[in-house]
Amino acid sequence: MKENRRQKVLFVDDEPGVRRTVGRLLDEMGYQVTTASGGEEALELMGLETAEIVITDVRMPGVDGVALLQALKRWWPMTEVIILSGHGDFNMAVTCLKHGASDFLPKPVDDESLEVAIRRAEERIESRLQSIRYQEAMEAELKRLRVLYGRVFDASPSSITVLDEDFTIIEANRTCETLFGKAAGKKCFEVMRKREGPCPGCPMEKTLQDGQVHTREMVVSTREGDTRNMVSMTAPLFDSEGTITGVVETTVDMTTLRALEDRLRSVGMMAGSVSHGIKGLLTRLDAGAYALEQGLDSQDFSQVKSGWETVRRSTDAMAELSLRMLSMTRPKDVVRESVEISWLVNEAVEAVSPLARREDVALLEASKLPDYQLRVDVAAMRSAITALFENGVDACKGLAPQNLSLTYDVSVDEKWITLTLEDTGCGIKPEDLEKLFTPFFSTKGSDGTGLGLFLARQVVEEHNGSLGISSQWEKGSKVTLKLPV
Q1: Which end of the chain is more exposed for a tag (fewer CB within 10 A), N or C?
Q2: Measured on CA atoms in the order 267, 270, 272, 278, is the torsion positive or negative?
Q3: CA–CA dist 223, 75 (Å, integer)
Q4: How far is C-alpha 417 from the chain's CA centre?
Q5: Quick count: other Cβ atoms within 10 Å of Cβ 245?
Q6: Closest by Cα among 46, 95, 52, 39 to 75
Q7: What pLDDT, in 10s, does the model give residues 134-163?
């Protein structure tokens, strides 16, 4: 006899003698045995207490063994069913096995055959339980990984998006939506670049074509209208068959780094300028020393005096240059003063008026300028705003004089003072728009230095503001400057 495993077994047979005999045998095997005289009673008992194994005769009045088997598999699919039959009917055996019976035994059944059949049923139950436990463990791990993935996805300081093959954003993390607003369901080029179609040289397009990782630096527009230098890296997503189904795009904000590079570039420019100045002073010193030597050799004191004056002027200039260099190493104390925004705008208008008249560009005030006071570095802010007006007038240069204009307006709300400049000039090509704030980039050719917009944005950002530009080629541009109230 087997050790006491205490599995619940329901034995079903319409013959009382068989029920007693087999029931006693099962009890001796160590099972918790319940007996039923037919299919109806068996179903009632199962409703009260579920048995792990049901052993049933196939031919019984009312609900027979096959009907009972079907009902058990419908309502208690985890229960194993062993069919007993006093008729060696092969077709009946096949039918029962098709309906999910674990075994089909002839009657009268011997102890060993019954025990083997029950053991097989127990093994099936254990195998199923292990499968369930494994599936539950896998589901728990999958749930844990999904939660972890979601946390990592949203906690990333980089903007991460999952895109399909049509450039539609399927999912976006918190950083992306903070920068660009709600993104899911929209095209990536609409969200980040405010474009109507894919960007030239799009790294995602390349990834979809060759399945490789691609990187590209670009300038994007945030939900607030700010421009940011971003590096985009795209990687393919594959299905189980290795087919590319989409792309993961990770975008890193490089604005601070690029600003640092710009400052370092400015230091390099300053160093070059200083070196050039020192070289000129050394040349003058050399000339003065030569004149001094010649005068001493020839006893020509007028030449000595002239050479000495040259040396002295050179040393004075060098002392002044040294003091300037020292002042550059000290932090610059910016003095901010109260000034009306209307005064800053009117100063810019007055400055560009002669140029506007020469180019037949009308300067139009959209509405009366508000007399709102703000604290700024007056000289720097006046220079920045004037540069924006000059760019607006320059955009109209060389065009037919009909309806050329630069319209300006100022509005104030609870958070921002907003200055807008809208010209009817040539506009900016899409491929140039993202480079506008790059040092030394100019759409004016040799007529521009490429520093005006770069320096203007620096001034605005130092005042915790933002500067953005939108444009349509051959239709004009709109500049939006925002300063906190």
Answers
A1: N
A2: negative
A3: 56
A4: 30
A5: 12
A6: 46
A7: 999 999 998 898 888 888 888 888 899 999
pLDDT of residue 89 exceeding 50: yes
**DSSP assignment letter at 58:** S
- Report the alpha-carbon distance of residue 359 to residue 336 in Å, rounded: 35
User: DSSP string of 388-433?
Assistant: HHHHHHHTTTTS-STT-EEEEEEEE-SSEEEEEEEE-S----HHHH
Phi, psi of 131 (to 5 degrees): -60, -40
- Beta bridge partners, 467, equal 481
Identity at 414, one-letter amino acid code: E
Q: What is the pLDDT of residues 10-69, one digit of tens each?
A: 999 999 999 999 999 998 888 999 999 999 999 999 999 989 999 999 889 989 989 999
Residues 6+ apart with CB under 8 A from 197: 189
> Rounded to whole angstroms, how far apart are CA atoms 47 and 100?
20
* Closest of 70, 67, 102 to residue 83, by C-alpha: 102
| 72 SS3 class | helix
CA nearest 2: which of 80, 101, 116, 126? Answer: 116
Strand 466-472 to 416-423 pairing: unpaired
Q: Place 326 in a pLDDT band, splitting at 50, 70 and 90.
A: low
Crossing angle of helices 16-28 and 111-155, rounded to 10°: 60
- H-assigned helices in 359-471: 378-394, 430-433, 452-462
Mean pLDDT, the chain, whole residue set: 84
Residue 431 Cα distances to 199, 346, 434, 443, angstroms: 9, 33, 7, 11
Query: CB-based contacts of 331: which residues, under 8 Å, 6+ apart?
Result: none
**Rg of the chain on CA atoms, in Å:** 44
> In terms of residues, how long is the chain?
485
pTM: 0.44
Q: Which of these, 448, 368, 380, lies nearest to 408 by C-alpha position?
A: 368
Residue 389 is which amino acid? F
State the residue for tokens 């254990």: 126
Residue with tokens 């079903």: 12
